[in-house]
Amino acid sequence: MLNLKRLQYLDAVYQCKNFTQASEMLYVSQPAISSAIQTLEEELGVKLVVRSSRGVTFTYEGEQFMRWARQILSSCQEAENAMRDLATSAEQRLRLGISQVLTDPLVPMIFSTFLAEHPKARIYLNEGSMNKHVEMVRDEMLDLACNAFPGPPEAEELELIHLSTMEVHAVLHPEHPLARLERIPLSLLGREKLIMMDAQSKVKELMTQAFERHQVIPDILFHYDQILCMANLVRSCRYVGIISVAPGQQALGCEGLALRPFAEPVVLDVGFFLKKGRYLPRLGWDLIRFIQENIPRGGPEKQ
Hints:
Blueprint: H1 4-16, H2 19-26, H3 30-44, E1 49-52, E2 55-58, H4 60-86, E3 92-98, H5 103-117, E4 121-127, H6 130-138, E5 144-148, E6 158-172, E7 193-197, H7 202-213, E8 219-224, H8 227-237, E9 240-245, E10 258-261, E11 267-275, H9 282-294
Parallel strand pairs: 3-4, 3-5, 7-8, 7-9
Antiparallel strand pairs: 1-2, 5-11, 6-9, 6-10, 6-11
Keywords: DNA-binding, Transcription, Transcription regulation
Protein name: LysR family transcriptional regulator
Family: Belongs to the LysR transcriptional regulatory family.
């Protein structure tokens, strides 16, 4: 039977590629780590690491074994976290990613109402785009994300929980000629200077596809990750911003500006996603139910 502590020592060496740094990471003496790995090699009957003046190199057998070792360590950590989560006296924690266009009204709801009902809970927020959060969920840096849904193949690794549908809008100065239209033909955007959402966002992906369908070459000045920055440039320079809007909501920071959807609607599904097969803390499921019960329902509404 494999010894868990020896696997932890080996994993530290794998991360650091150096015995001294691994010993400092674990607060364990270097001879203890060396002895543990030597014992592990004897038990397995293969050479796992090769030490040299330039550091540590893992053999082919060592690289293959680490795939299993890291899965074992991850499963043990997940089991420990799950049991702590189920202990009613324990502080509950959740690492939550959220799209910048969903912070209002979700964040006020979470911190003013939801956490009041969960006084022992701690939620650590990470604001970002879809692709960023997909990667963080996949790498287990986030427990849960609330963002636009990715397409295949990324979606195949995730459990998706639908909340609503959003529609992409142009953000305009109220005196801009396009603000007179109820819906804007995409062909007219070829004449405008655009401020596009983050290059890792679902909106950027969908708008690129829409421009290609309509044979429009967009003049994108830059991609923004702060809505207030985009809105201020729309106000001062009469540029055209691009944003997705939640049903029944005015985009935060765009007060006083005109939001207009497109003649060919550009829509996206949004909701929660988590890594398939990975334990989600009970706090996460409680939050999902809370948002489902309190978020405005329905499809895109005209602004």
